[in-house]
Design a protein that fits this description.
alpha+beta; Aminopeptidase; 4-stranded mixed beta sheet
Length: 96
Amino acid sequence: MIAVDRRKEIVGFAHFRPYPDTLNGTEACRLDDLYVALSHRDSDLTERLVEYVCNTSRKRGWSEVNWVSVDEPSLNELYDRIATRTELTTYRIPLT
């Protein structure tokens, strides 16, 4: 999903995909990337993009939407308001 402003410039996007939720025997949605331009971060664009992903996921019968985020206070506040934080932690091994 790409968000554009009135000048047709890209100001945000959401990249998402289905993945098997093996513990529940369903298909779920992974929100891989969510970006909103600095010029639009004071708007509701982030919430609208997440809402779009959720609505699309519901239509496709996916069981949930989940994502990993950096520990950023302004994002944490927003995400805590619109979603449930889980106990999972993401680890990474760089291979280059």
